[in-house]
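Input record, target 12 of the design panel.
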């Protein structure tokens, strides 16, 4: 536990024992309840980039579950908590499986739709009391002590907040947490590193819903009554505002945002009626204007400004030693590793790749060259499963046999031993260099998605984390970036970012490495170092297929070349022979641009 969290806990624990007015205890309680929901939105919206306006409905599920069981059947609130978690998890999984498929503006619209649906469901079900709700909810009992007042509930509410903060921080600073953070950079990169993005979106949607449900359970036993009003769309918008205002990408931003909005609303409700009269809901208007001004001036929220005033240290540190990760067996030098058979890709009437054929052998460096627009990157995307082939076959040697991979998704292809970099660098700019590279080792972890999240939250994954981070550190040192472990990836020069991508790809433990313009942006000495690295990888039995426009780099490095023009192969062979090929000379009109 860091010192900031320890100080935060000490201050919180002291509040109820001080002569604090009951009104302030009530405000603190609501700030705590709102913070729990906002923490889920930090995970869902701020980190993963999935906007939801419907979290208030999940608060309602938790509240109504415990309210109904405790008032109608006399069951313990703790049983109500378990029931709320089970019901919310089932509902969130079902809703998430449908909603998380949406993208763009359809996603927030979808969350508004199901949020309204649950709100009206609460208000129209007879056994839930319709719009009058349920009254007479019993207090929570802890070790025989009944928590009947707000002051007595205070410590339980904030204990849940602290546990939620620790759990979310533990999750984000772990292997599944890095996969969640990679979602914001787009699914292509995450899938290429082995992340099942569709499943991961559903998982974090359920996690955010469960946090909201726990908040609803606490709310029901604090208020001792529930009705649909607090679980409507307006509340959902306010929860999202809390996360955004505090800093949607930061765990502590959830608590800061909940505090600011709760105190601001309270002050506006007391000040504005004295200034403008009691008729009219002026606080909503002023509140909206203040929010717009705030978001214009601080689009990442307020926490980043406060964070700069605090001592900074890396979220994760690379260990000096750790158990080695298992590695895959290398292919025998000279045997066919990749086989492309009449691969064709059409975009409507445009033929981007025209019945292309070539082979890559184990322990060789092969270049795929051609003028801009020749279809080289498209071919890379076909090999790595980013795009499906229109016709033809792509085979890769996995387990001793050449297996068709053109019908597999990217995450299954990288599992078989193919890793790649991108023409346009795809990194998480606010994550450290070390964490970016560690994403490449996602599939080398020992836990599945669900068990991995559970072990990460409880910090039972320390051995695995040490191995993954040590491997990332080793690969960074291998490519010459070992001195930049804790720098933000977005602060690196373009050439360094490309080298970082190579280190990330090497963390996948590939047998075939696909490099899309790796020398672009590199200085002469850096190109020499890259050539030495690739030659070393070749000596270790790793095959390399690269696209590159620097002809001096390509001709001095590759064993064979395939030349493309308008999606068609026009030449193949040794670099010296390809240089003299009339078709190649004509295609380039005297050289590469």
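The sequence produced for target 12 reads:
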């Amino acid at each position: 536990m860091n010192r900031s969290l320890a100080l935060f806990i000490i201050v919180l624990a002291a509040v109820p024992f001080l002569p604090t007015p009951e009104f302030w205890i009530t405000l603190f309680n609501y700030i705590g309840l709102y913070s729990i929901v906002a923490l889920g939105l930090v995970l869902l919206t701020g980190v993963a980039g999935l906007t939801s306006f419907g979290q208030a409905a999940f608060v309602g599920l938790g509240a109504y579950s415990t309210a109904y069981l405790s008032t109608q059947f006399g069951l313990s609130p703790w049983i109500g908590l378990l029931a709320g978690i089970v019901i919310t998890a089932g509902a969130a999984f079902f809703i998430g499986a449908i909603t998380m498929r949406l993208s763009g503006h359809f996603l927030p619209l979808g969350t508004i739709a199901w949020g309204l649906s649950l709100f009206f469901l609460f208000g129209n079900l007879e056994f839930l009391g319709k719009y009058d709700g349920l009254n007479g909810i019993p207090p929570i009992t802890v070790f025989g002590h009944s928590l009947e007042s707000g002051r007595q509930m205070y410590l339980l509410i904030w204990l849940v907040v602290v546990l939620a903060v620790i759990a979310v921080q533990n999750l984000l600073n772990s292997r599944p947490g890095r996969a969640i953070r990679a979602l914001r950079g787009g699914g292509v990169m995450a899938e290429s590193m082995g992340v099942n993005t569709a499943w991961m979106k559903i998982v974090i949607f359920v996690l955010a819903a469960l946090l909201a449900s726990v908040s609803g359970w606490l709310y029901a036993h604090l208020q001792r009554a529930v009705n649909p009003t607090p679980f409507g769309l307006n509340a959902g918008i306010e929860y999202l505002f809390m996360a955004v205002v505090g800093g949607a990408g930061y765990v502590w931003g959830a608590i800061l945002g909940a505090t600011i909005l709760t105190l601001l609303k309270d002050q506006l409700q007391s000040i504005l009626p004295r200034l403008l009269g009691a008729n009219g809901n002026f606080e909503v208007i002023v509140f909206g204007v203040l929010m717009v001004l705030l978001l214009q001036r601080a689009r990442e929220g307020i926490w980043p400004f406060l964070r700069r005033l605090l001592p900074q240290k890396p979220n994760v540190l690379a260990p000096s030693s750790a158990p080695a990760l298992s590695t895959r067996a290398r292919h025998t030098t000279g045997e066919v590793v990749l086989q492309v058979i009449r691969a064709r890709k059409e975009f409507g009437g445009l033929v981007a790749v025209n019945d292309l054929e070539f082979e890559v052998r184990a322990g060789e460096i092969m270049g795929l060259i051609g003028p801009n627009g020749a279809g080289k990157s498209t071919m890379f995307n076909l090999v790595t499963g980013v795009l499906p082939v229109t016709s033809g076959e792509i085979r890769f040697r996995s387990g001793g046999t050449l297996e068709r991979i053109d019908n597999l998704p990217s995450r299954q292809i990288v599992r078989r031993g193919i890793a790649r970099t991108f023409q346009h660098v795809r990194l998480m700019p606010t994550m450290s260099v070390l964490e970016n590279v560690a994403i490449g080792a996602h599939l080398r972890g020992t836990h599945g998605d669900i068990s991995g999240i559970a072990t990460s939250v409880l910090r039972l994954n320390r051995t695995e984390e040490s191995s993954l981070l040590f491997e990332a550190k080793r690969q960074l040192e291998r490519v010459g970036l070992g001195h930049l472990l804790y720098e933000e990836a977005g602060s690196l020069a373009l050439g360094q970012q490309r080298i970082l991508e190579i280190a990330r790809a090497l963390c996948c433990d590939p047998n075939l490495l696909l490099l899309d313009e790796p020398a672009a942006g590199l200085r002469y000495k850096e190109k020499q170092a890259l050539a030495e690295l690739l030659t070393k990888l070749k000596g270790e039995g790793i095959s390399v297929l690269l696209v590159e426009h620097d002809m001096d780099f390509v001709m001095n490095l590759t064993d064979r070349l395939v030349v493309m023009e308008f999606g068609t192969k026009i030449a193949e062979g040794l670099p010296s022979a390809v240089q003299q090929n009339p078709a190649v000379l004509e295609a380039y009109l005297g050289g590469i641009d």
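The mean pLDDT is 89.
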